[in-house]
Amino acid sequence: MQDIFATTTSFADLGLSDALLKGIKDQGFEHPTIIQSQLIPLAISGKDVLGQSKTGTGKTAAFGLPALHLLDGSVPFACLCLVPTRELAIQVTREMRELGSHSKLKVLAVYGGQSINTQAEQLKKKPHIIVGTPGRVMDMHQRGLLPYDKIQLAMLDEVDRMLDIGFREDIRKILGGIKQNHQTIFVSATISDEIMRLAKKYMNDPVDLSLREAKSLTVAQVNQECVSVPDWDKQRMLHHVIKIEKPDLVLVFCRMKVTVDRVAKSLQRKNIDALVLHANLHQGKRDKVMDRLRKREVRVVVASDLAARGIDVDNITHVINYDVPEDPEVYVHRIGRTARKGQSGKAIMFVTPEQSELLMGIERLTNVEIPTRVFDDFKPGPEPDRIQQDRARLEKEREAMRKANSRTIDELPAETLGDDPSKFPGGLVPKELPKKRMGGRLRTRRR
User: Whole-prediction pTM value?
Assistant: First the structure.
């Protein structure tokens, strides 16, 4: 746990108020994580901070505690925290309320999917800290319910993800709309050049805590493995892995919502209680899934990436990447759902034979070689008819091409060559194939 916690430092050493120290003690925290020990003192001193840390190392408390410490409760709407998803808005709000339970500060989440009228009534009570998704924050601001002119502290969580899912212009409009002097904090698991440009434009001489030279973006407590399996056999492999591993709590990540539904149904047919979590679910159902997950009333949750960004649940023992993400940074966020706060966990990724490049991209980003695991007792299912038919068709096409390339001039149909000299340069009709041919080794621009 040495790469996560600053074991020689206490929260009292960071300069936090007594009220916050009580809240921290109530939550059972003894030592701050490394990112907390670095970011909190800088933020308390009034510095703009750009912080990067591995997923699952306490970034929410790293920016939440300074906000709770700095605000005295005399100014409403004094802090705005932007997050990419509604689940993360709910999670950050809950954690800040718990940490600030002995203070008088009011924290409110505003996000799409919940009634605007309900949130409007809550905003009229003038909370001190707003945690929201960019779209709903802009909506409330345009309605005159969420003023920017009182903001003293602007915080952005999961900045990379907000940029990935199209919040660039929203972020610029919101940050550009805060005209008065204020403090700004960016935190993320990964820091891109675009985030650095954003920081340069909207932050005032920020202290850069981004760990660009870190040996690995993933915590050491995550035991990472990959399994080679054809696409058509992944459902069978998933059931086998769950049967062998016997996870207490597992998240299964899929790229598409339709795959999430299909995989969950396949597990349910095997009498495995599996819930789904994706953007098409009504907010009420998503809240129920999260509630059951936190209460450990469900063993398996099959999720899409967008919906799972706000999952901050302890004791998730396994993460299974049913689909390899095309963006290696998504892999980092996925497996960060396990091994949180010093716990151990396992991440297993299903890799098809065609996805070796994606696997190597993940290994290059994380600077970790992911070993391949073989399940000797796994019995592959029968190859689908469509796969056999595609293979037979391709083989037939290859054979036809081989025969065509091996024919001599005499074997070609007369109508192919013809004997009209006007059809050939100089009127010379070829009588045989050239002695040297390219043989398919033509150099192209393709890489």
Answer: 0.69
